[in-house]
Specification:
Elements (H helix, E strand, L loop, with lengths): L2 H12 L1 H40 L4 E6 L1 H9 L3 E14 L10 E7 L1 H6 L4 E4 L7 E5 H4 L10 E11 L2 E3 L11 E16 L11 E7 L7 E7 L5 H12 L4 E4 L1 H6 L6 H36 L1 H9 L4 H41 L16 H27 L3 H6 L15 H20 L1 H35 L7 E4 L17 E17 L17 E2 L2 E11 L1 H11 L9 E3 L2 E4 L5 E4 L9 E5 L8 E6 L2 E3 L12 E6 H11 L5 E8 L2 H11 L5 E4 L1 H42 L2 H9 L4 H38 L3 E2 L6 H26 L4 H6 L4
Parallel strand pairs: 3-9, 5-8, 15-22, 16-21, 18-25
Antiparallel strand pairs: 1-10, 1-11, 2-3, 2-10, 4-8, 5-9, 6-7, 6-8, 12-23, 12-24, 13-15, 13-23, 14-15, 16-22, 17-18, 19-20
Helix pairs in contact: 1-10, 2-8, 2-10, 2-11, 2-18, 8-11, 8-14, 8-18, 8-20, 10-11, 13-20, 14-18, 14-20, 14-21, 18-21, 20-21
C-alpha cells in the first residue's frame, strides 16, 4: 500500500463522524437496491408458485389430439414432459341442493397428470383405471350422501345452448340450456378431494376425476417446456400448424411471471416501469453517495493541499478519493446486502402474520435470493459508488496547495454573482439579504444542497404516483366484490328473495331488480377517452355507438340512503349514472374511462337488447352521477343506472319490458352459516353464489399491494430525509468560519436565527421550483408506460404534492435549526480558524 493510501486510511480513522456518515449513506443506498431486487425476485417466485398451486405447472396445451400428434409433441426438442387430460362430460344430479350447481362434471387425467395437477386428496386414494373416480368433498357433504366404496351409475352428456357446447367456465343457465346424453357409465368411488382451485366458483358441476384410459384420442396435452423464451408462442403455433392441431393455448399468467409474454403492451409497460423505477433509485443513490463524497472532499481540502505541497501528483490525489470509495464500498456493500435482505425478511414476516387467504394452500411470501439478483445489486452499487466518486475525485486532483491550505476553492465571488434585488431587502430585511448572499457565495454547496432536495422531491412524488397507480391498475384487473353472498330469484319474482334479507348472521343487504336495454349515442357525443377502445369502431352503427344499459331498481329507502351516502343531489324519483366503464379490450389492455359527457348527454333512448336501432321502446333522463355504486353493482363494460324500484317499474311500463331479474346481495358475519341457513329454506328456483373466499382474496391482495406500496414510500421518504439532513447539517458544519465572522461584526442571535430561517425558505423555494416540474415529468412518463396496458386519464397525486411542499420547508427548517444549534455555542476565535482536520 502506497503512502497516499495509508494517509487516506488514517484520515478516515481520525474523522470518524464523517466516515460513519459516508458509510451509512452507502449502506442505505445498497440496502435500497438490494431490497428492491429481493422484493422483485421474491414476489415473482411467490406468484409463480401460487399460479402453479391453482392451475398446475404447464406452459402450452394442445387440444383434441390423436396418438400420432401426441408422439410428435413428446419428441419435440424443447418438450420436457407432457401430461394428458380428457373431459368426459356432465351428469345431472337428482334434486340438487344448490340450484346453480345441478351437475357432476367428469374429467380424467393420466398418471402423470394426477401428480402434476394441484389435486388435493382428502380421503382414500387416486383412481388407477377408468372405472374408478375421486369426487369433490362438497358433493359428499350434500343431502344425497355418497361415500367411498359406493358404485355410481350415470348418464354422461353435454350442456348446450343454441347448439353451442357449454363448459365449466359457463355458469348454469336454467331452462335456457339443454342437456344432451352421450353415453352411460359406471364408476366406483375410491377417494375424495378438496374442491380444486381451478374449479370456477360459478361452475355448474362438482368436479369428479377418473384415470385416463388408453383411448387418448380427443385428449388435451399439457406441455412443460425445457427453455422459455418469447419464441415459444411462434414455435408452438408453427408446430400446431405443421401437425394439423386445431387448437393451441398458452398459460399466459404463469409465463408472464417467467418474463415471457407475447403481449407487446405488457412488455412495454413492464420494461418502461422497471426502467423508470431503477433510474429513480439509481439517481437517488448517486445523489446520496455523491453528496457524502463531495462533502468529504471539501473537508479534506487542506489535507489534499498538504499532500500536493509535498509532491503528490494529480493522479495520486484523484486515486486517493477512488481508494476512499473502494474502502467504504468494501465495508458498506456487504452490510447493505445483509440489511436489504434482512429488511425484506422482516417485512415478509410481518406480512405473513397479517395476510392469510391471499394465495392457494396458505402459501406465504418468503425471501428468494438468486445469484443474479445479488450480483446485480453489487454491480449497481459499485457503479453507483464509482459515479459518485468520479466528480469529487476530479475536483480533488485539481486542488492546488495554496488554495487548499487557504480553503477558498469553494468560494468564487464577484459583485455580480452575489447581487440581490431590492425586493429581497424589502421583503426579508438585511438578514434575508445576507442569507441569500451567503448561498450565492457558496455556490457549490448551495447547488449540492438544492440538488439533494430536488432529488428527494422527485423520488417521493414518483414513488407516490407509482404506488397509487399500481393499486389502481391492480384494481382494474380484479373483480370488485363488496358482498359475501348473491341470491338470484326467478324473473319478475322479487318476493322469492325477501325472506332472506334477515337471514342468520346477515349484517348488510341490498335487494334490487335488474333490467337491461341498449342505447345508441352519436359518435360526436362519445367521450374521447372511450374512443381509444380498440372495439370502438365495431360498436358503431351508422355513426352511432352502442351502449349496454343496466338499470338497477332499489327500495325507496335504500335509494334515499344511497343518494345521501354519495352526496348526489337527485330527487327520489330521479336516475343516477355510475359514469365509469372498466374493462379489458380485445388488445388485452385494461381500460377505464367515463362513459358519458353529461354536459352533452342528459337523455338516452332505450332499445330492446337485440341491437336493432329501429326498435326504440322509450327513453330515460339522467339526473346526476356518482362515483360509488350500491353494494353488488359492479362497474364493467355496461353503463349502470341506479334508481328507485318505482321509477324502474314506470320505465318498464312505458317500454313494455316485462322481464326483470331480482338480486339480493348480502354481507354476513358468518357467510358459511348464512348459506347453510338459506340452503335449508330456499326453493330450487333461487340460485346462491357465495363469493366470500374470492372477496377475501381480493381484499387481502389489495392489502398486500398497499403494504408493498406504502413500505416503498416509507423507505424512500426515510432515505430522502436522511439525505437532506446529512447534506444540510454537513454544509452548516463547513460554514463555521462564515458564521463566526458574522457574529464578530455584531450579528445578534435573533438576527442569526432570522438569517437561517430565510435561508431555509430560499432552499425550499428553489428546490420546489426545479423539483415539482421534473417530478411531474417523471410521473407523466410513468403514466405513459402504464398506458401501454392500462388506459386511464393522468391524475397527479395532489395530496402527495401538497405534502411534499409542506414537508420540504419543515425538513429543511428542522435540519437548519438542528445543525446551527450545534455550533451556536462555539467560540468566535475557534470558528474563524475552521480546522476540519
Amino acid at each position: 500500500m502506497n503512502i497516499v493510501n495509508k494517509l487516506t486510511l488514517r484520515h478516515l480513522k481520525e474523522n470518524k463522524r464523517r466516515t460513519m456518515v459516508t458509510i451509512i449513506g452507502v449502506i442505505i443506498s445498497v440496502a435500497m437496491v438490494t431490497a428492491v431486487s429481493t422484493l422483485f425476485v421474491s414476489f415473482l417466485d411467490l406468484m409463480k408458485q401460487d399460479n402453479i398451486n391453482k392451475g398446475g405447472e404447464w406452459h402450452v396445451q394442445y387440444k383434441n389430439i390423436n396418438q400420432e400428434q401426441l408422439d410428435a409433441i413428446k419428441s419435440e426438442k424443447n418438450t420436457d414432459h407432457v401430461f394428458l387430460r380428457k373431459d368426459l362430460g356432465y351428469s345431472k344430479i337428482e334434486d340438487p341442493p344448490n340450484a346453480s350447481k345441478p351437475y357432476l362434471f367428469f374429467t380424467s387425467f393420466d398418471e402423470k397428470g394426477l401428480k402434476e395437477m394441484p389435486i388435493k386428496l382428502k380421503d382414500g386414494r387416486f383412481p388407477k383405471n377408468d372405472g374408478e373416480i375421486v369426487v369433490s368433498e362438497d358433493i359428499l357433504n350434500q343431502k344425497n350422501k355418497l361415500k367411498i366404496g359406493d358404485s355410481l351409475s350415470v348418464e354422461l352428456g353435454d350442456r348446450l345452448m343454441d347448439d353451442t357446447t357449454l363448459f365449466q367456465d359457463n355458469s348454469f343457465n336454467g331452462e335456457e340450456e339443454e342437456f344432451r346424453t352421450k353415453e352411460k357409465a359406471s364408476f366406483t368411488i375410491v377417494g375424495t378431494i378438496k374442491q380444486p382451485e381451478w374449479e370456477y366458483p360459478w361452475a355448474p358441476g362438482y368436479t369428479v376425476i377418473s384415470a385416463l384410459n388408453d383411448k387418448q384420442a380427443g385428449s388435451t396435452a399439457f406441455v412443460v417446456e425445457q427453455k422459455l423464451s418469447r419464441k415459444l408462442f411462434d414455435d408452438a403455433k408453427a408446430f400446431a400448424k405443421k401437425h394439423d392441431i386445431q387448437t393451441v393455448e398458452f398459460n399466459h399468467e404463469l409465463l408472464r411471471y417467467y418474463g415471457v409474454s407475447n403481449n407487446d403492451n405488457l412488455n412495454a409497460t413492464l420494461f418502461g416501469m422497471a426502467s423508470i423505477i431503477v433510474g429513480i433509485i439509481l439517481i437517488g443513490s448517486v445523489a446520496l453517495i455523491y453528496n457524502a463524497f463531495a462533502i468529504s472532499v471539501s473537508e479534506r481540502a487542506r489535507h489534499l493541499g498538504m499532500l500536493s505541497s509535498v509532491g503528490a501528483t494529480k493522479i495520486q490525489k484523484r486515486n486517493s478519493v477512488f481508494f476512499e470509495g473502494a474502502v467504504i464500498g468494501l465495508i458498506s456493500i456487504p452490510i447493505g446486502l445483509i440489511a436489504g435482505i434482512g429488511g425484506m425478511a422482516v417485512t415478509f414476516w410481518f406480512m405473513n402474520t397479517t395476510l392469510t387467504n391471499v394465495f392457494a394452500d396458505g402459501l406465504k411470501i418468503s425471501v428468494s435470493i438468486t445469484p443474479f439478483s445479488i450480483l446485480a445489486a453489487c454491480a449497481v452499487s459499485i457503479v453507483t459508488i464509482f459515479i459518485s466518486t468520479l466528480i469529487p475525485a476530479r475536483r480533488a486532483s485539481k486542488v492546488s496547495a495554496i488554495d487548499a491550505i487557504r480553503q477558498t476553492q469553494d468560494v468564487k465571488m464577484s459583485g455580480r454573482s452575489v447581487k440581490t434585488s431590492k425586493l429581497t431587502r424589502k421583503l426579508f430585511g438585511i438578514e434575508g439579504e445576507i442569507g441569500l448572499k451567503n448561498l450565492k457565495r457558496n455556490k457549490k454547496r448551495y447547488i449540492a444542497t438544492v440538488f439533494s432536495l430536488v432529488i428527494s422531491i422527485i423520488l417521493f412524488l414518483s414513488v407516490s404516483f407509482f404506488t397509487d397507480n399500481i393499486k389502481k391498475s391492480a384494481g382494474m384487473t380484479q373483480e370488485n366484490y363488496d358482498f359475501d353472498i348473491q341470491l338470484t330469484g326467478p324473473s319478475n319474482n322479487l318476493e322469492s328473495l325477501k325472506p332472506f334479507v334477515n337471514a342468520e348472521n346477515v349484517t348488510d343487504s341490498v335487494l334490487l331488480e335488474y333490467v337491461s336495454f341498449q342505447s345508441w349515442l352519436a359518435s360526436k357525443d362519445v367521450p374521447s377517452a372511450l374512443k381509444k377502445d380498440p372495439d370502438y369502431q365495431a360498436n358503431l352503427n351508422d355513426g352511432k355507438y352502442a351502449y349496454n344499459l343496466q338499470l338497477h331498481g332499489l327500495d325507496e329507502e335504500d335509494f334515499k340512503e344511497y343518494l345521501k351516502k354519495t352526496g348526489s343531489k337527485v330527487d327520489p324519483d330521479g336516475v343516477v349514472v355510475i359514469n365509469m366503464l372498466k374493462y379489458q379490450g380485445s388488445d388485452r389492455k385494461f381500460y377505464q374511462s367515463e362513459a358519458l359527457d353529461l354536459q352533452k348527454t342528459k337523455k338516452l333512448d332505450l332499445y330492446d337488447f337485440n341491437g336493432e336501432e329501429d326498435e326504440k321502446v322509450g327513453s330515460i333522463n339522467i339526473d346526476g352521477e356518482a362515483e360509488e355504486a350500491p353494494m353488488g353493482v359492479r362497474v364493467g363494460y355496461g353503463l349502470n343506472l341506479i334508481m328507485s324500484r318505482d321509477t324502474l317499474q314506470k320505465i318498464q311500463k312505458e317500454t313494455g319490458s316485462t322481464n326483470s331479474i331480482p338480486f339480493l346481495y348480502l354481507n354476513s358475519s358468518d357467510p358459511s352459516a348464512t348459506q347453510e341457513a338459506i340452503d335449508e329454506s330456499k326453493g330450487g328456483d333461487v340460485e346462491v353464489f357465495n363469493i366470500t373466499q374470492m372477496k377475501e382474496e381480493n381484499e387481502q391482495f389489495s392489502l398486500l399491494v398497499s403494504i408493498f406500496a406504502y413500505g416503498f414510500i416509507t423507505l424512500i421518504s426515510a432515505i430522502s430525509i436522511a439525505n437532506i439532513f446529512n447534506t444540510i447539517s454537513t454544509s452548516i458544519s463547513l460554514r463555521k468560519r462564515e458564521f463566526a465572522m458574522l457574529k464578530s461584526v455584531g450579528m445578534t442571535p435573533k438576527g442569526f436565527n432570522k438569517m437561517i430561517h430565510y435561508e431555509s425558505i430560499f432552499y425550499g423555494l428553489k428546490s420546489l421550483l426545479y423539483g415539482l416540474p421534473i417530478g411531474f415529468a417523471a410521473m407523466y412518463l410513468m403514466h405513459m408506460a402504464l398506458n401501454e396496458s392500462f388506459e386511464y386519464s393522468f391524475s397527479p397525486p395532489w395530496m402527495s404534492v401538497l405534502f411534499v411542499v409542506v414537508a420540504i420547508f419543515a425538513i429543511v427548517g428542522s435540519a437548519m435549526l438542528y445543525s446551527t444549534g450545534k455550533i451556536k455555542k462555539q467560540n468566535i476565535i475557534d470558528g474563524l480558524k475552521q480546522e476540519n482536520i
